[in-house]
Write a structure and sequence with these properties.
The chain is of the alpha/beta class and 250 residues long. Helix content is 42%, strand content 14%.
Length: 250
């Protein structure tokens, strides 16, 4: 049999092992609980966020990198915190744009070869071991979601977020697909899903497909102002949370 070469070495290779011991499962559950608490502590004071998803592979000179950078600037001008996966590429670009505009910038990193190190444009950064914990944090603190061009991970984040909104598990927040040339085939396929009856035609209205930074910002701003208002809360340091540093850029 051809040897399997892993990008990340498995921690414990076991085949057809069946259920683990109760001690193992308890320790695993406790580890996940601690990771959630770490996330809550780190992100408690980051403020209302807009999460930008996108590929980690685009370099600084790529048009998609520049678009994400402009998106970060737009989010900062609206008074929101820019939250990303914290890695390079599109994530770095969005964090960079927010940082350069004097806005708050947050990164939720993951232990992967492409995203191991946090990009240098975040005031608050946290690294997660488990994808599902990271995705909860990327959604929990956000009022809107911008999907820049990306690969499997971006598609996973897009469709999971869209499913949460569609099923009303998540309050209906605006979702923007940015990049018509890149996303038109996907959007057309979603139209064929509606035609086949696997989704409702109304579900297509949950997503704005655009090439315009200004249109994306206006869509998000109008939707939030029309449907929501920020509720003042006394934020106590029960878990010894730390307030994030403010960008010194102008």
């Amino acid at each position: 049999m051809e040897q399997l070469h892993r990008i990340i070495a498995a921690k414990d290779i076991q085949f057809l092992d069946g259920p683990k011991s109760r001690t193992y499962e308890f320790n695993f559950a406790w580890k996940i609980f601690r990771e959630f608490i770490k996330g809550f502590r780190t992100l408690h004071f980051v403020g209302p966020c807009i999460t930008v998803f996108g590929s980690a592979r685009f370099k600084e000179g790529h048009p998609h990198y520049q678009s994400a950078r402009e998106m970060g600037r737009q989010i900062a001008s609206m008074g929101f915190t820019t939250m990303t996966g914290g890695g390079p590429g599109t994530m770095e670009a969005a964090n960079r744009g927010a940082f350069e505009a004097g806005g708050m910038s947050v990164g939720c990193n993951i232990k992967l070869p492409f995203e191991q190190a946090a990009n240098p444009y975040v005031q608050t950064s946290i690294t997660f071991e488990h994808f599902f914990v990271r995705k909860v944090m990327l959604v929990k603190y956000s009022y809107a979601f911008v999907i820049m061009p990306g690969g499997f991970g971006t598609m996973d984040e897009f469709f999971e977020t869209l499913t949460l909104v569609q099923t009303k598990t998540l309050v209906r927040f605006p979702i923007v697909l940015f990049g018509k040339e890149y996303y038109t085939p996907l959007f057309d396929y979603m139209g064929s899903m509606a035609a086949q009856g696997t989704i409702s035609k109304e579900d297509l209205s949950l997503v704005l497909l655009t090439d315009s930074i200004a249109e994306a910002g206006q869509h998000i701003d109008t939707f939030i102002k029309k449907n929501y208002r920020e509720k003042a809360r006394k934020r106590k340091w029960w878990l010894f949370e730390k307030k994030p540093a403010i960008s010194s850029q102008s």
